[in-house]
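Structure in, sequence out. Go:
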């Protein structure tokens, strides 16, 4: 723990300059090294490079920049100013100067982008495994459970169940063979919070799992990661191997009676395996399908034994709670949802990427202060929160507190932390269709409400966006949504209809417009577009007619052409090929 990061940085690096010459830098400058970090959060500004000890943050770095970086910054300590981020007219040389970063509270993500993600030495130098040593050296298992319970830590995977309560339920089971399982499946479209933690600071999550195992008396643990995360899997394997070599995993850890071993299971990408009982079934080699409860996972989970199942971000919070105490953790965020939450901010917002903010932060702060507002000429319309199991929030909800209880009252949920911002060019009916298509494809098929109900809802939504919807379809959508929510077997099925229910409630007029007027105001739904040729702008060049694949355009050279919309297939070839902007979509 006393090692400085500078000691760890002493390693050989190979730097290839623009002339293709490889330079072995350690021979001349022994203190220089290149390390592999994790996601720094500034996704849209990559490739990124942070240079220590100057704390320079370079953005949009290209291979041809490397020679100048080596010559000016590494050898001379001078910045390459053209690679600094610029916020309007303000130059931002350091990470803390960038508004996207300096308005966050990075606790779980504190080390991501700062330390070598593949080095246990750097994690230890940054204070890693101190919490484990404290727990094993001066706390009983019950002390650990009580500290986590007092902290108010709630599961960051979506449901928000109190972690301490779950741990205590496992600890009091009569069965002494117990397991700790980490859910790193993260199947929500656009979500990459857990992935970034596993790639950028894998030891923090592992340390949290070990503390949880000590608390409940487990000797084995499993990390369930989807196979689409090869870098996360590679770094987790390396981290486990390093911990075993260092005596931090295995038998008699730190000279105590506590022994623990970790295994990695790769999932095949099934969204339903994010559900606890489906996940444990998959680890056991069975088809990933949820089961009826009770018994619950805390009573009969993996291999039929009591199991602690939390997601990556939940476990990553545990070391800091043990180190700094429950009161410190409770000082961040609202009383009933303390701590921070990582979000993947994407969509129609100026600055996208990975963020971490205190629970209770408002949507307005996230979108306008951190995200920089809506990009382009659009205006804010809605945000989809919680992925395909979440709901839509609109302008009147911009000041809602982002915490478990507040969002539940709004008919939405935090989920794993996806935030998709949409502007006024977005069709909310198509958004509902997109998420329902995802959910229907990912249904495991075990229960009729989810298997058949989502399919019927998807068929209705597809009819509506194709211009064949009827008013009674809206009532049927609502009826099906209520049925699925009330009768589906698992939590994923029960929340499958949320995107449709929320958009149908908030954007009812948009649904009616699609059904009655056969129009899509955003021009997103291809089948509802109507192309018109302006007689005033048309030069009669015939280019549109020549590029129409179905011959739906007629006219004479040097006279305005006309589109037969009954024959038009809405492909847009006429508009794309017009040199005079004479073709437009009817508003």
């Amino acid at each position: 723990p006393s090692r400085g990061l500078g000691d760890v940085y002493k390693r050989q690096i190979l730097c290839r300059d623009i002339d293709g010459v490889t330079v072995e830098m350690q021979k001349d400058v022994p203190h220089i090294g290149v390390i592999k970090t994790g996601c720094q959060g500034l996704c849209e500004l990559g490739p990124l490079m942070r240079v220590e000890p100057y704390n320079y943050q370079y953005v949009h770095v290209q291979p041809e920049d490397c020679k100048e970086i080596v010559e000016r910054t590494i050898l001379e300590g001078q910045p390459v100013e053209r690679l600094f981020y610029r916020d309007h007219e303000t130059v931002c040389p350091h990470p803390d100067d960038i508004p996207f970063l300096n308005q966050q509270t990075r606790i779980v993500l504190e080390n991501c982008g700062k330390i070598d993600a593949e080095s246990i030495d750097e994690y230890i130098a940054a204070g890693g495994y101190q919490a484990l040593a404290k727990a094993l050296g001066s706390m009983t298992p019950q002390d650990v459970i009580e500290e986590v319970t007092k902290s108010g830590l709630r599961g960051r995977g979506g449901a928000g169940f109190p972690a301490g309560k779950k741990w205590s339920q496992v600890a009091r089971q009569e069965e002494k063979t117990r397991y700790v399982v980490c859910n790193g499946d993260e199947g929500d479209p656009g979500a990459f919070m857990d992935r970034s933690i596993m790639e950028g600071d894998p030891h923090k999550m592992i340390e949290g799992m070990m503390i949880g195992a000590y608390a409940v008396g487990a000797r084995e643990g499993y990390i369930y990661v989807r196979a689409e995360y090869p870098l996360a899997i590679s770094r987790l394997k390396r981290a486990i191997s390093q911990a075993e070599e260092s005596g931090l995993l295995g038998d008699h850890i730190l000279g105590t009676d506590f022994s623990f071993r970790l295994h990695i299971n790769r999932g095949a990408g099934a969204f339903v395996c994010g559900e606890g009982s489906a996940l444990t079934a998959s680890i056991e080699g069975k088809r990933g399908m949820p089961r009826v409860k009770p018994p619950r996972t805390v009573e009969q989970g993996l291999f039929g034994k009591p199991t602690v199942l939390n997601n990556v971000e939940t476990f990553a919070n545990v070391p800091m709670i043990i180190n700094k105490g429950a009161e410190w953790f409770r000082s961040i965020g609202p009383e009933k949802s303390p701590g921070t939450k990582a979000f993947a901010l994407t969509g129609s917002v100026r600055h996208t990427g990975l963020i971490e903010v205190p629970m209770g932060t408002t949507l307005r702060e996230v979108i306008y202060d951190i995200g920089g507002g809506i990009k382009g000429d659009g205006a804010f319309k809605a945000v989809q929160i919680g992925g395909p199991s979440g709901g839509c929030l609109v302008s009147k909800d911009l000041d809602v507190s982002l915490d478990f209880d507040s969002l539940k009252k709004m008919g939405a949920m935090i989920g794993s932390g996806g935030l998709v911002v949409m502007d006024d060019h977005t069709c909310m009916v198509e958004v509902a269709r997109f998420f329902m298509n995802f959910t229907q494809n990912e249904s495991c098929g075990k229960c009729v409400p989810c298997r058949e109900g989502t399919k019927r809802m998807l068929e209705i939504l597809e009819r509506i966006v194709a211009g064949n919807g009827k008013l009674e379809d809206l009532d049927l959508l609502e009826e099906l949504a209520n049925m699925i929510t009330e009768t589906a077997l698992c939590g994923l099925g029960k929340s499958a209809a949320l995107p449709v229910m929320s958009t149908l409630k908030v954007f009812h007029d948009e649904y009616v417009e699609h059904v009655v007027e056969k129009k899509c105001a955003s021009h997103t739904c291809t089948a509802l577009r109507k192309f018109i040729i302006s007689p005033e702008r048309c030069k009669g060049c015939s280019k549109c007619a020549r590029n129409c694949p179905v011959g739906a355009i007629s006219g004479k050279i040097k006279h305005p052409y006309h589109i037969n919309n009954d024959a038009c297939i809405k492909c847009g070839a006429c508009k794309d090929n017009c040199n005079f902007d004479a073709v437009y979509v009817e508003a």
